[in-house]
């Protein structure tokens, strides 16, 4: 029964005849409908709880692990007598994997959401999914050759395709990633690249996955009908093991080697899996021999992949290893300014962009996430985006990225820059030559440290917090209309953050 049908069902019951026999049947029917309504409402409540739990796990585990293991989970039935909730996954392998690694976390999350849940049971879905039609490169569906019971989940990734938002047009390049971007564009061009495979190396959140998807999109546009497959190395390993267990290795190899381009992410996760490494090695050989294109990405260089067979290391190293360096301050500014284009008329002051670009420096993913969170909060609450709002709402991200710069270090650097005595930071003198450096130091203390206004005031001769607030706002305003002041602050920021 649909939720929309509930009101209609009640109305029909209310119109029942008053005759005894008819009344009894009506009451029985109403109880049945009421029971169904209760069951439906309980199902809706369970689904709402699962949506909240799933979102929490996405934040904890990250989008990649969540999409791979948590998102495929389907809600089963809940037994009130035993307090057992069933969670289903499409394959025995995925059910065992989730049960081994996430059972405790899922159980705790459900017990917090619903006190009546005493046990979470993770099993394979009683009706396994049939194999979906496989679409590659815009071609017509290819009928599955393997038996329905095999249902390799690897085909789901091909069916869902590449992320449409991760294109070259949306990738911001700079000196830190120019080699990788140029190599990626060559790999996606119509002409056969001079190197193969392409190995993208970079730390977490620097754009490796974005480039992999961008290569796939560009290659599909340049070669209509091309067969392109993207997966993580971990996914490759899982599908390999599943195919081996279900005696479908011939089909697995044939389909994998039938692609024109293979894009493999997080190759470091293939470490230590001897049989999977062997198959991956054979796949690389087959693709390269056939003139196909291979792009892999990892968080370390091939030589730093511990536990990888020497022959595989040799194959991975024989093409081009393109390093993606951490984004420098200029690239971080460009990324933020590019991202602002998605938010229409939302106004973000220049000092906020500068603050985010300087403070969130660990990886690009955190940088973009911080901007998204800040603007979303401002739009939902109706507040203007400001430096103060950024500090209040991005506390966790900022504290994780900030180098531990002290107020003493700031005062020392400012005094050296303006050539004033260190004692002036706490003195009561109000000469302009002393007041302005002191105000700059207060501003930098607020921007570069997690200290509150009262704490900063105490470090400047026991001044009131309102004095610090005035100084911070004054320097913010001066930076927008005084190029010399803005230049001084930029220079001091570079000195303090180097």
Automatic annotation (TrEMBL):
Question: Which BP terms in the Gene Ontology apply to this protein?
Answer: DNA replication initiation; regulation of DNA replication
| UniProt domain Chromosomal replication initiator DnaA C-terminal: residue ranges | 406-475
Where are the residues of the annotated region Domain I, interacts with DnaA modulators? 1-143
| Coiled-coil annotated residue ranges, if any | none
| GO cellular component terms, A-Z | cytoplasm; plasma membrane
Q: Which residues form the AAA+ ATPase domain?
A: 194-342
Which keywords does the record carry?
A: ATP-binding, Cytoplasm, DNA replication, DNA-binding, Lipid-binding, Nucleotide-binding
Q: Name one GO molecular function term.
A: DNA replication origin binding
Q: Which residues are ATP-binding?
A: 205, 207-209
* Record's subcellular location: Cytoplasm
Highest taxon above the source species: Bacteria
Here the segments flagged for biased composition (Basic and acidic residues) are 21-35
Renumbered to this chain, the signal peptide range is: none
User: Where does the record place the region Disordered?
Assistant: 1-35
According to the UniProt record, where is the region Domain IV, binds dsDNA?
Answer: 379-498
As for family, the record states: Belongs to the DnaA family.
How does the annotation summarize its subunit structure? Oligomerizes as a right-handed, spiral filament on DNA at oriC.
Its UniProt domain note says:
Domain I is involved in oligomerization and binding regulators, domain II is flexibile and of varying length in different bacteria, domain III forms the AAA+ region, while domain IV binds dsDNA.
Function of this protein?
Plays an essential role in the initiation and regulation of chromosomal replication. ATP-DnaA binds to the origin of replication (oriC) to initiate formation of the DNA replication initiation complex once per cell cycle. Binds the DnaA box (a 9 base pair repeat at the origin) and separates the double-stranded (ds)DNA. Forms a right-handed helical filament on oriC DNA; dsDNA binds to the exterior of the filament while single-stranded (ss)DNA is stabiized in the filament's interior.
Q: What is this protein called?
A: Chromosomal replication initiator protein DnaA
Q: Which organism is it from?
A: Novosphingobium subterraneum
Classification of source organism = Bacteria, Pseudomonadati, Pseudomonadota, Alphaproteobacteria, Sphingomonadales
Which gene is transcribed and translated to give this protein? dnaA
């Amino acid at each position: 029964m649909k939720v929309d049908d509930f009101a209609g069902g009640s109305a029909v019951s209310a119109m029942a005849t008053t005759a005894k026999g008819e009344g009894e049947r009506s009451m029985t029917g109403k109880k049945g409908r009421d029971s169904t309504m209760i069951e439906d409402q309980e199902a809706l409540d369970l689904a709402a709880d699962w949506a909240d739990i799933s979102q929490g796990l996405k934040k904890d585990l990250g989008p990649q692990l969540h999409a791979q293991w948590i998102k495929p989970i389907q809600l089963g039935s809940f037994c009130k007598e035993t307090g057992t909730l069933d969670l289903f996954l499409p394959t025995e392998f995925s059910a065992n994997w989730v049960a081994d690694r996430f059972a405790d976390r899922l159980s705790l999350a459900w017990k917090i959401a619903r006190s009546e849940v005493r046990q979470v049971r993770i099993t394979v879905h009683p009706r396994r999914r049939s194999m979906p039609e496989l679409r590659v490169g815009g071609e017509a569906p290819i009928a599955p050759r393997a038996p329905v019971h095999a249902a390799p989940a690897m085909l789901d990734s091909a069916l869902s395709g590449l992320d449409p938002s991760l294109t070259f047009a949306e990738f911001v390049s700079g000196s830190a990633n120019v080699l990788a971007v140029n190599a990626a564009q060559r790999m996606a061009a119509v002409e056969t690249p001079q190197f193969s495979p392409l190995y993208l190396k970079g730390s977490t959140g620097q754009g490796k996955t974005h480039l992999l998807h961008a290569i796939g999109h560009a290659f599909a546009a340049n070669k209509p009908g091309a067969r392109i497959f993207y997966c993580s190395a971990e996914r490759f390993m899982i599908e390999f093991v599943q195919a081996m267990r279900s005696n479908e290795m011939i089909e697995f190899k044939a389909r994998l080697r039938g692609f024109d381009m293979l894009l493999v992410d997080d190759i470091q996760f293939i470490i230590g899996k001897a049989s999977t490494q062997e198959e991956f090695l054979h796949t690389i050989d087959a693709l390269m021999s056939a003139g196909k294109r291979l792009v892999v990405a990892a968080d370390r260089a091939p030589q730093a992949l511990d536990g990888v067979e020497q022959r595989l290391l040799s194959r991975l190293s024989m093409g081009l290893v393109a390093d993606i360096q951490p984004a420098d301050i200029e690239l971080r500014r460009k990324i933020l300014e590019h991202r602002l284009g998605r938010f229409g008329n939302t106004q973000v002051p220049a000092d906020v962009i500068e603050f985010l670009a300087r403070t969130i420096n660990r990886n690009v993913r955190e940088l973009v996430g911080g901007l998204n969170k800040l603007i979303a909060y401002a739009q939902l609450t109706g507040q203007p985006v400001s430096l103060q709002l950024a500090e209040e709402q991005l506390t966790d991200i900022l504290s994780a990225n900030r180098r531990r710069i002290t107020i003493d270090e700031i005062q020392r650097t400012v005094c050296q820059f303006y050539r004033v005595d260190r004692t002036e930071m706490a003195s009561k003198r109000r000469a302009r030559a002393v007041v302005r450096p002191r105000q700059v130091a207060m501003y930098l203390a607020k921007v570069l440290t997690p200290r509150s206004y009262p704490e900063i005031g105490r470090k400047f001769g026991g001044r009131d917090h309102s004095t610090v607030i005035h100084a911070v706002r004054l320097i913010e305003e001066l930076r927008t209309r005084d190029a010399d002041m803005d230049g001084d602050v930029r220079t001091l920021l570079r000195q303090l953050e180097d």
